[in-house]
Amino acid sequence: MKQVASAREFNVSIQSSNLVVAVFTASWCGDCKFIDPFMPEVEEKYADRLTLIEVDVDKVGEVSQEQNILGIPSFVAYADGRELVRFVNKLRKSREEIEDFLNKALDVYHTLHDTPERKE
Fold first, then answer.
1. How does pLDDT run across 94-108, given as a tens digit for each residue?
2. Catalytically annotated residue among 19, 20, 26, 32
3. Active-site residue 29, yes or no?
4. How far apart are CA 29 and CA 27, in angstroms?
5. Which of 60, 75, 95, 117 is placed for a possible disulfide with 87 were both Cys, Cβ 3.0 to 4.6 Å?
């Protein structure tokens, strides 16, 4: 997962016309460490459909404040610079819940991007 090192890099990443999911984490977060072992497999499973980026809330705090991230790990899906859907709460997240969210994000993305008026 690509780590975002600055607010500028975050803003450039979410401008993509493809689906980008930001994973907000921190090195001290126990629930973030819980998802670490299976996230590479999840990322590989979805690699052809979306891009996952990691945002450390301690290193890029202004981004988490702007995005109103109150609990971590949190997942927020973007396309064309706008938020599509988010999975944000203070609870530990299971692999199934994360994959359910990614599927939901893909559904929202395709609903918005596969409409006739979007053809360019």
1. 999 999 999 999 999
2. 32
3. yes
4. 6
5. 75
